[in-house]
Amino acid sequence: MPRTNSSKNHHWWPVALQRYWADSKRDVSWIEPDGRTDKKKFDNRKIGYKIHGHTILKGTVWESSFENEFDIDNEIHNIVRALKALAEQGKRPSELIRMAMLFFKRDRKLRDMCNFHDMDDNLHRLLLTLIYSLLIRCPAARFRYEEYPRLFGFRPSENVGKANMLQSYRTAKKLCEKSISSNQKFVILHSPMKNFLFGDGLLDWLTVNENSYRISGKALIPLTPNICIYFCTTDSITSNHNCASLIAPNWIVDRVNEITQIYSRDKIFYLGKPPQIINSFRQNEFLEFENKSNDFIDILDEIFLTSTSSRTFKSYCRL
Asked: Which of 75, 73, 103, 79 is nearest to 186 (CA)?
């Protein structure tokens, strides 16, 4: 259904994505830093939103809304369906046999466990736009945008934050539509057994590098309980393919979920049993890795490297 501008409940987590996190009773569950859990029906549209979160200068003659800028939400089900189709290719009998044979290869690398794809240009640009929209809308980014006035000695401002969100997203949309995509790579992490987590903060080394002429950076986005997307840009010599898919073992899911908890502040959403919360999430703050560096992210980057110097699979599991 087309989006309308009539609601004051502006979702930073699209309802179309929330439905993938709902249980058989259509409830979406979350846990808070103090360990309390709660749940609500996703179709009541009362999860992952902020009242007038995309309305600038509310109550003045200059009031305006940019809620309809996020029309990428209308493509979510098509995007998820296409990603599932790519991920499912790894379950073909021939691929399962190939994967089984790799267990006898002592020097196997993570890239050996991947299937590589040429994601078509339309899906590539739609998925990248969705990634940007989730990063820019999420509460962690809103907090960062609202804090910008402090750089000039002023107090944080909701309206400044919203204006920054709007400018960033409009710039990102243009880049997603027109930028050269040859150095942009996606990894589809597919976990059919253990579920990913989603939070109100995301690993975002992408929008913080935003400029008007080039896409550069990295991001890690759990889209559904079974699909997480890693995006990166590279200037190194890499595979000609722009997409890799991987059936994620439990240790990869654990590392992704740990990162989600580090970057989140108020809520961690889950499907199934409540997760064990870690000390970083208990601090009830938006945290991040120093210097935009992390060994697990380095591991994912190595998937596209053509060099033979990347680490073996056993060394990953020890990290």
From this structure: 79
Cα radius of gyration rounded to whole Å, the chain: 20
155, amino acid identity? R
* Model confidence pLDDT, tens digit, residues 133-182: 999 999 999 999 999 999 899 999 999 999 999 999 999 999 999 888 88
Using an 8 Å Cβ cutoff, are 189 and 240 in contact?
A: no
Report the alpha-carbon distance of residue 278 to residue 264 in Å, rounded: 11
Place of tokens 């204006």: 163
CA angle 33, 34, 36 (to 5 degrees): 100
Q: Are 195 and 22 in contact (CB under 8 A)?
A: no
| Burial state string for 230-250 with b = 16 or more CB within 10 A and e = fewer than 16 | bbbbeeeebbebbbbbbbbbe
Alpha carbons 186 and 230: distance in angstroms, whole number: 6
Q: b vs e for 173-198, b when ≥16 Cβ sit within 10 Å of the residue's Cβ?
A: bebbeebebebbbbbbbbbeebbbbb
Q: What are the structure tokens assigned to 1, written together? A: 């259904």
Residues 74 and 133 sit within 8 Å (Cβ to Cβ): no
Are the beta carbons of 270 and 31 closer than 8 angstroms? yes
Please write the tens of the pLDDT for every residue from 11-38. Answer: 999 999 999 999 999 999 999 999 999 9
